[in-house]
């Protein structure tokens, strides 16, 4: 059963974000940073290794306003798991309620192909793709802040802006820069 | 050391000849100290090891040889903890390259050749001569050249190495060595080294091996020195040619250098018996971004050479005297830290210097920073210092390096928006004019993605950065604008030759981009005064492009930016908007005059005039005539919606009296006029002479922009309180 964005009613002044990460190493730190930062809105962070989510809790689960896929470029598995999870998401989510969080893009050991592949996925789904520095506290802080910015919009908490509107502005573009590959 | 003690003895003899007993005693104590030192040296296992390696017979077996193992262990420990002193490098390199104990040990020794301070040139020469003997196996050969490349900056002088340029050149025909040899030649090449037959050889190789980046780079350098010999054309943006060869030694080398730095400065000679320090574990450094020290390079014993090494420059007058015979330092990166060197770069405009500096910079930024292997550490101080130096250098030269530009475009795509933010945005504001065909891909897309997801402060700093970028582009234009042909590239080093229309296209794109992101950004941030202020800064630059920078272009802000300014809650924003509109008027009028006078002048489209006039009408009707929201006054809303708001006389709500930005002043004025009145009736300000007094009162409170606007754009009708907007066009 796929996760649906509009099957439940929203609650007042509340935003729910789902962090999906196969390795479960970054999501905890990120969720703490998110909760610590936001104090004007009730933010609930839910964690998952992959989709689909278990059916048992489906009733009690609140409406998810944003699904964040954390992709570690250091591991191929992370990429494969993300691609597999995407299939279990209702198409309504791709109208501005999904974003990708990529770590390790700046590292020299990562192959360009992997980055290009996740970029292609994000671009074909019209989703934003954020780069993060997961090793430093400042990096985690920044990532949390950026996720919150998107979350607030997609949860409808920012007047005159919607998730779809924002994601048309920040969606990932197809990787075309061939000179990048040459340099590496 | 012995020489030093002799010197001191001489000094003492000359200064106090009559006090012989005293000098004799100190003489004796010195000798005792020296003997002690010698004794301790003789027992030092490291000294013994070196002695062993320098004297060991050829053909001594190494398998199962415990003596070698023991000595190797000592040398390895010293090398990795403190680095090797120059004489040890000589001994060990000679031992390894002569293959006295076989190839296996040769590679093992090469791997640990980490110099503590400098590498003696003669040792390298000897190594090259062993290379010429031709007995070395291929892996040892490449390893040796890679080692030379790694320690190149530490070689104490390079004149003899340059003298054997031909010998080194002969190795380019070896397929495996060729990339490394090309890199080494790149570092050694001077104008004298370029010969016709060498160029031909390289071209032959290129036809055989294809357009290899390392050959291309070397040929490009040849072309800079001798354009008449190399007729090839090179692409403007070449792939980075020489890969990072030094990974074997880099970590150990930088660790040793860091540790030794303090000691070198305190002038302790790095003799064999360096103080035993607790051998700390090799520290991993994040990147090794350091501006290298300017090394004393050539000119030892060559008295007839006239070249003047740059690092010996101390004063500006020295620079002026020797301007024609400056010798560039071996390590181009060292020029970044030296203002005199930059003066030299700036006035001589040496192509090869720029090429080499660009090459070095691109390599450092790319390898050490963008794609650094171990990005775990949080220590960014080195990178911060390096990038700050780079920013101040670019500021000094008043242009960006092309390698910085390439680096930035890549970095923006993997940036999280926080890492080194001030430095990255600082560098970004320095980039030269981006051609309008590529500006979207290179700049706008990555910036948009960062801008809309990041915090308010990031949004402000991006707008600020784009403002200073625009300012620099405009300044370049106003300095370098020629009559017909515009050469925007400040130097001939960048391949970018822009026409006036090309520049204008880029400026239009940039201004429109800021208009777009500011519109949406303001909306997302709830029209935050801080973001409003930074956007106003930007438009203060834009409105004066014609008069201040002589760029025939007038671009109005979009409605999504203009109306938030006009309806802002703080008076400063409204006042600055009025000032901007006044400047727009001045620019438009002056452009119109120009238009009528000369045939060639540019033509401002009717649309711009229309937009401007519409905005003026909006301001006047809103602040002056109390006709906001009525038909034809800019913002229009349907009557039903306005009625629903239940605001009585809604058309007056943004007049100078009721505007949220000015209401405080109106109340203040009201109190001053009628101090005894209990009931506040702001509308009474609109009657009689009071309105004029109120406006004067506002001017006296420092609203200069408002004053300028009123004096230029308003024709006031004496009969009533109405005013008409003065249109342009």
TrEMBL record, chain A:
<dbReference type="Pfam" id="PF11111">
    <property type="entry name" value="CENP-M"/>
</dbReference>
<dbReference type="GO" id="GO:0005634">
    <property type="term" value="C:nucleus"/>
</dbReference>
<keyword id="KW-0539">Nucleus</keyword>
<protein>
    <recommendedName>
        <fullName>Centromere protein M</fullName>
    </recommendedName>
</protein>
<keyword id="KW-0158">Chromosome</keyword>
<dbReference type="InterPro" id="IPR020987">
    <property type="entry name" value="Centromere_Cenp-M"/>
</dbReference>
<dbReference type="InterPro" id="IPR027417">
    <property type="entry name" value="P-loop_NTPase"/>
</dbReference>
<keyword id="KW-0137">Centromere</keyword>
<dbReference type="GO" id="GO:0000775">
    <property type="term" value="C:chromosome, centromeric region"/>
</dbReference>
TrEMBL record, chain B:
<keyword id="KW-0539">Nucleus</keyword>
<dbReference type="GO" id="GO:0005634">
    <property type="term" value="C:nucleus"/>
</dbReference>
<dbReference type="GO" id="GO:0000939">
    <property type="term" value="C:inner kinetochore"/>
</dbReference>
<dbReference type="GO" id="GO:0034080">
    <property type="term" value="P:CENP-A containing chromatin assembly"/>
</dbReference>
<keyword id="KW-0137">Centromere</keyword>
<feature type="compositionally biased region" description="Low complexity">
    <location>
        <begin position="11"/>
        <end position="24"/>
    </location>
</feature>
<dbReference type="Pfam" id="PF07778">
    <property type="entry name" value="CENP-I"/>
</dbReference>
<feature type="region of interest" description="Disordered">
    <location>
        <begin position="1"/>
        <end position="38"/>
    </location>
</feature>
<protein>
    <recommendedName>
        <fullName>Centromere protein I</fullName>
    </recommendedName>
</protein>
<dbReference type="GO" id="GO:0000070">
    <property type="term" value="P:mitotic sister chromatid segregation"/>
</dbReference>
<keyword id="KW-0158">Chromosome</keyword>
<comment type="similarity">
    <text>Belongs to the CENP-I/CTF3 family.</text>
</comment>
<feature type="compositionally biased region" description="Basic and acidic residues">
    <location>
        <begin position="25"/>
        <end position="38"/>
    </location>
</feature>
<dbReference type="InterPro" id="IPR012485">
    <property type="entry name" value="CENP-I"/>
</dbReference>
